[in-house]
# Entry
Amino acid sequence: MENPKNLIFIIFGASGDLTSRKLIPAIFSLKNQKILPEKYAILGVGRSKLSDEDFRTRMSGAIVSYSEEKSDDKGLIPDFVKDIYYHSMDSTSENDFLTLKMILGQLDEKYGMDGNYIFYMATPPSLYEIIAINLSKSGLANNETGFRRFIIEKPFGYDLETGKKLNKTLHELISEDQIFRIDHYLGKETVQNLLVTRFANGMFEPLWNRNYIHRVEITSAENLGVGDRGGYYDSAGALRDMVQNHLLQMVGLTAMEPPSSLDADAIRNEVLKVFQSLQPIREEDVAKQVIRGQYTPSLIRGECVTGYRHEKDVAINSRTETYVAIKFFINNWRWGDVPFYIRTGKRLPTRVTEIVVHFKQTPHHLFRRESGKLDANQLIIRIQPDEGMLLKFDMKEPGSGFNLKNVNMDFHYKDLADVRVPSAYERLLHDVMLGDSTLFSRDDEVETAWKFLEPIQKAWKNNKEIKVFGYPAGTWGPEHANDLIEGDNLTWRYPCKNLADEELYCEL
Ligand code: BG6
# Structure
């Protein structure tokens, strides 16, 4: 793999969780793979008053706790953290950016670098605009003396209006090709593998359309609750937190037309076309096509699990959804009339993300099936855990007659010996260092995704009759979500049953 040009990686919000859990372990791993620039430095920026040494100690601890490379037999951590620095400042103060500029200049000189900076906004979203404004005013955003790239974490706005406003403010200061909107799902190997599965194999693409596919289902379930993120989550909810970005990106890659090349814009243009083809859900249809839920207290294997409204920093009368399921259509020649069902939720029975492509039945049923079992052919693309693919099809059961048995043909990434699946952040941070924006959301994609969700947000805001269904923690969400799926005896694929009677980890 290519080594990027020399650079300084600046993290705003460096004392936060994201830096310790994801960013520093990911950069550490890049270092161990020897794919960092020849010369680089990391500068953490935050309000907390810390010395370089304090921050290095914290980051060493973060690597020990969160890096996949657990042991440090080779003494790699001390060698890594020596290039990490910390600067305490107020990101809303224009003056503080002049000091930041000076510090960056000194680091540049010390390391003999080329003025290339990557700014990572790991702060609350309310600070994105002011940080970009202050960087621009201090001359730090200017691309002329080296590249200046900005990584922005979701949420990219709160709705269509604020999403557009954020894009507009950023575009007044920097150009679109300097902006990397990170959606960590796009960094997952299995999400990228969707492109390969579809476009490197001749056998799937001819079937990948309305003539052979009955419906597509995408599930992203989590067994954990909101933990200590209640403050953020209560103003976001599952629609903004997961659907606007991760789920719709998976829809985009599943439904897109083959791109003409692997060029960043060639791929993103095709995803955008899918978003533009999403059939708008009318406000009056929201109650029918969108089911929202909120987890309630429950007993899981003898342990009491708190309901959402009693989580830390959550309003006691909150109507924020921790679960959402949506049925929609894509209005184009490939997908006309094929329903897409997506769902995501917290405190479901397990952590699993998968895409299930249900193929149509044979036109004439020659053989007897077990009663009620109609789903003969399914392709299941497992994003996590136990990453892989599974094809379900019917075989003859040995013995007299022609009885059918549904069997599996499967592939698991874990069976590839010696292949380590890199973390999403490793892949994405390395791509930003190289300037490759293929796996990042573009301004128009983000706005079009918000546009699709706008009637849902409006209906929920304006119509208090639309229910927020309670579901006991550890179950698969509100039962009403089953009614979304059209067809007799059809329902979601349940990779495992409710927590009360199944193991937490479920095999593909
Ligand atoms: C984040 C959301 O973007 O994705 C979290 O903010 C969610 O609420 C997380 O838990 C899920 O990511 P993953 O990689 O664990 O599926």
About this structure: The first strand starts at residue 7 and ends at 12. Residues 230-255 form the longest helix (26 residues). Residues 184, 222, 241, 353 surround 6-O-phosphono-beta-D-glucopyranose (CB under 6 Å). The chain has two domains: 7-153, 186-500.
